[in-house]
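ok trying this again, last paste got cut off
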Amino acid sequence: MTSRLYSQLAERILMRKSGLKLMWLCMPLLLTGCLYHTRRIQQPIVAGPVLDSDAAQLIDGVNRRYREVNSLTARVEFEVSVGGAHKGRQTDYSSIRGFILFRKPQMLRVVGEAPLVFTRIFDLASDGTSFTLQIPSKNRAI
């Protein structure tokens, strides 16, 4: 009976030690700045307009390209940044994987997934008349 108690006690101690080892191994990953990075950037010199066209020509070009596409499915990677050259500093966040689904005449859906665990961060859908943005982590729909 006592040998069984000693073996159970030894097993619990080993499990605690392995849990602590795992925690210490994961700690550097959390502290390395993998989630975001802030850096200072110089303000760019703004160049003049490259093309000379009026609004009607631009609208015609967009409509011509739109008529050629009936549906689109794309796997994308979103790179999110806050700030920019006008503020003098920029914060870059981890990239977000996702996909875009589009089908004429009125369907659009954009989904973003969290890195590593691939759970949904956001889900944007449109039926042509309204947009709905779902944020599962906050249990909200806008």
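PB: full thing came through this time. Residues 35-42+62-141 form one domain.
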